[in-house]
Design a protein that fits this description.
This protein has 171 residues and is of the alpha/beta class. It has four helices and seven strands, in the order ββαββαβαββα. It has one domain: P-loop containing nucleotide triphosphate hydrolases (Rossmann fold), CATH 3.40.50. Helix content is 26%, strand content 23%. Bound molecules: guanosine-5'-triphosphate and magnesium ion (MG). Guanosine-5'-triphosphate (GTP) binds next to α1.
Length: 171
């Protein structure tokens, strides 16, 4: 459907004025949200990455093929500033264009308290969530969880991720 080749950074902060379908990426700080987007976009440095949690502090908007808006959200659970958290929650609560939220979980660890809190809140407002495991390259095959496992390092799971996103756009 999309060819995922024409990707541009649009803006930080509030959603763009133009109304296109949107997908969002959420998860704990350092789980690999920004890396997942670079890997999805096949672009090394379009989205800023850092080994220090808390790198992404405002909503970061991208446009794919003039058809889809993708938003990288600040991570929750670690030194998230209250105002950033509120901006994220407000966006997720009131966005008619939002089609699916990719909820990233580090494949090496069980769900953490912050993940469970986010899940509770997301269910309470019926957010359309899809779980995506990150850093699959760090685990041997037999320890990988069931589900959509990705690695920004090796490219694992990119095709499945694209299928999942496109299905949510055209159910
Ligand atoms: N081995 C491995 N490391 C990864 C992978 N994805 C991300 N990382 C590393 O994890 C760290 C955090 O990555 P980011 O993409 O900045 O994480 P984030 O969720 O955007 O972090 P915040 O913006 O701070 O919330 C960086 O050191 C990345 O290089 C992966 O698939 N495999
Ligand atoms: Mg980030």
């Amino acid at each position: 459907m999309l060819n995922w080749k024409n990707v541009e950074f649009l803006k930080s902060g509030a959603p763009p004025n133009r109304r296109l379908p949107q997908i969002a990426v959420v998860g704990r700080s350092n789980v690999g949200k920004s890396s997942l987007l670079n890997f999805l976009f096949s672009r090394k440095n379009l989205v800023k990455i850092s080994a220090t949690p808390g790198k992404t502090r405002t909503l970061q908007w991208f446009c794919v093929d003039e058809f889809l808006h993708v938003v990288d959200l600040p991570g929750y659970g670690y030194s998230t500033h209250k105002l950033d958290q509120e901006a994220t929650e407000q966006y997720l609560t009131k966005s008619p264009e939002l089609r699916v939220v990719l909820h990233l979980i580090d494949s090496r660890h069980p769900l953490q308290r912050a993940d469970l809190q986010f899940l509770d809140w997301a269910h309470s407002i019926s957010l359309p969530l899809v779980r995506v495991y990150t850093k699959g390259d760090k685990l041997p095959l037999h320890r990988r969880p069931d589900g959509l496992v990705t690695s920004a390092t090796t490219g694992m799971g990119r095709k499945e991720l694209i299928e999942t996103i496109e299905t949510s756009l055209c159910p």
